[in-house]
Design a protein that fits this description.
The protein has a domain of 183 residues: Cyclophilin (Beta Barrel). Helices cover 16% and strands 18% of the residues. The protein has 5 helices and 10 strands. It has an 8-stranded antiparallel beta sheet with strand order 4-5-7-6-8-3-2-9. It is globular and about 40 Å long. The two termini are 12 Å apart.
Length: 267
């Protein structure tokens, strides 16, 4: 099955109240003078996302051989370790997405117990639109889809973009279908992943086109219980490593379908 692609900032205000000194004898009131009301200064709101995300072709930094990403979610925290040798292009794409906070505020929109937890549609429609056709080539398959592995979704050869899933079990039937793991959840992190809200079943997952176009606003209205990624950030040495351009970076395809379709269920 393939589906088209097209998935928050808080402000604190500090208010100070001046104290007024009392005078023993008030001065005579001055006659009011005509004044011109000052117009409040208005500023355009800054976008909640990194504007570099609107230019996928420029985000081609080569990932370290191994690196870690910390996910903070509405169910708790977990860390994944990426091994570039498993899937070089996939590891590079994920590295660039995380580096520019693509996944922050995104939802786990398809959670199927005993199968996968899928995510990767931005909370911001304009970001989804920018990445719709930013595909990468396939990597040679070297690792099995074991429980806890992190994998890019695909709608067919050469269609990986931004959607990923975490395997809830050993989904070895996906090994021959182009689903190439590039990382894995560390330690007991799957305890958190397995708590993601799953009562929508396939319903939310089948609504990807609207989620892509409507972003977080749409999800909050129609699928409010889906768990959210508060942040996904590089940690350890990768967090401070200078970026270098990957030699194997692929140009966005113009004819391939976007990788917004979900991995096929077990037959």
């Amino acid at each position: 099955m393939s589906l088209k692609s097209c998935a928050l900032a808080f402000v604190a205000l500090a208010v100070s109240i001046p104290s007024w000194a009392q005078t023993p004898t008030p001065a005579p009131a001055a006659k009011p003078k005509p004044t011109t009301a000052a117009h409040p200064t208005t500023h355009a709101a800054a976008p909640a996302y990194d504007r570099a995300l609107l230019k996928p072709a420029t985000l081609t930094a080569k990932a370290p051989d191994t690196y870690q990403v910390k996910f903070v979610t509405t169910r708790g925290e977990f860390t994944v370790t990426v091994t570039r040798a498993w899937s070089p292009l996939g590891a590079d794409r994920f590295y660039n997405l995380v580096k520019h906070h693509y996944f922050d505020n995104a939802r786990f929109f398809r959670v199927l117990p005993g199968f996968v937890a899928q995510f990767g549609l931005s909370a911001y429609p304009e970001v989804n639109a920018a990445w719709e056709k930013a595909t990468i080539k396939d990597d040679a398959h070297s690792q099995s889809n074991k429980k806890g592995t992190l994998v890019f979704a695909t709608a067919g050869p050469g269609t990986r973009t931004t959607q990923l899933f975490i395997n809830f079990k050993d989904n070895t039937s996906l090994d021959s279908q182009g689903f190439t793991p590039f990382g894995a959840v560390d330690g007991t992190g799957m305890n958190v992943v397995e708590m993601f809200y799953d009562q929508y079943g396939e319903s939310a997952g089948m609504d990807q086109e609207n989620i892509t176009k409507g972003g977080e606003k749409y999800i909050a209205q129609h699928w409010p219980k889906l768990d959210k990624i508060t942040s996904a950030t590089l940690i350890g040495a990768a967090a401070t490593a200078p970026a270098t351009t990957a030699k194997l970076a692929a140009k966005p395809a113009t004819t391939a379908k976007p990788a917004t379709s979900t991995p096929k269920p077990n037959q």
